Amino acid sequence: MRGWIGFAAGMAGYVGLLVLSQRLLAGGIQDQGTRLLVSLMPMLPAAIVCAAVVAIIRRMDEMQRKLQFEALALSFAGTALLTFGYGFLEGEGYPRLSMFVVWPLMALLWTIGTCLGRLRHG
């Protein structure tokens, strides 16, 4: 339960700091150093989310950890293949994609991997 509380608190903090940072940046901060710090503010609670996910996985039983490991492996390898492949397509004129595309892709593949693992291990 503690891991999920940390996860929820981290996500709430992330959303709050994301909204705040975007408003501050839209307000016209002139100093480049300050703009960089404000841009990175949401990453502080994102680190809390990361730690919470690790804590949640550590408290899982061996089978659940195995399932999550396999799902994460699929996510890692699938993201690498798709992003490298698309990188070659960018060299042929395809539009450049933001790095913000990578994490949702990885999350989608992790979810697919988890669902496949649950079907397989029933």
UniProtKB/TrEMBL annotation:
The chain crosses the membrane at residues 36-57, 69-89, 101-119. It comes from the Bacteria. Keywords: Membrane, Transmembrane, Transmembrane helix. This is Uncharacterized protein.
